[in-house]
Amino acid sequence: MNDRRIIPCLDTRNGRLVKGVHFVDIKDLGDPAENGAAYSQAGADELVLLDITATLEGRKTLLDAVRRTVDRITIPLTVGGGISEVWHIQELFDAGVSKASINTAAVRNPDLVKEAAKEFGGDRITVAIDTRQSASCPSGFEVMVSGGTKPTGIDAVEWAKKVEDLGAGSILPTSMDADGTQAGYDIPMTRAIADAVRLPVIASGGAGKLEHLYEAIVDGHADAVLVASIAHFGTFTIKQMKDYLAQRGIAVRR
What we know:
The protein has helices at 32-42, 63-72, 86-94, 104-108, 111-120, 156-166, 187-196, 210-218, 229-232, 238-247; strands spanning 5-13, 16-21, 24-30, 47-51, 77-80, 99-102, 125-133, 141-145, 150-155, 170-175, 202-203, 224-227. The longest helix is centred in the N-terminal third of the chain and has 11 residues, at 32-42.
């Protein structure tokens, strides 16, 4: 079995690290590069940096924050936010980013996923899927776009299967319902997507206790867990997260 990964998430707005609840009530938490450096030194396996207002503001990811973060870390960095062209991805890779995460643009132009996977290799392309519970979708989960502000009517599980066929290398589904609540990941949604694809799935949205990480892996069938609030607010260290999982029989990287 592959080692499970702990991946802190650096949500940024205007180049600053922020955290919200249900994608709103955003609080400023400092400098993403400084926080990224601390997580890198603390033993995080990877980092994800998401420019959460890029798409809404009709712009690309702010490269300054990305470059400053890359300069301070020694672990892989995935970056998303405002990516709508293959050259946007090339720009990020030129800045030292390991993987690109596409969300809204993938829904609007699915061929972007195919083109990016062909150009750079699928293992460098992550498709992020923002979801919310919806009785109108067969799986019970709908894809949301534009920073979670617009419903699409697209079933999240069917979309996950499609992006796998298009060549994506991993999927990052975030539950808008659970985001920032620290009440636990949306296990049914995570499991539904993980069971529908062969790709690595990164659980995201809602971690508040160490047990939640275990549940995402064992019950949600996730390959990795994204953490934000419990890391940013100092609730648990990366070491505590890994020690807990290891004690419960989950293989983690050391």
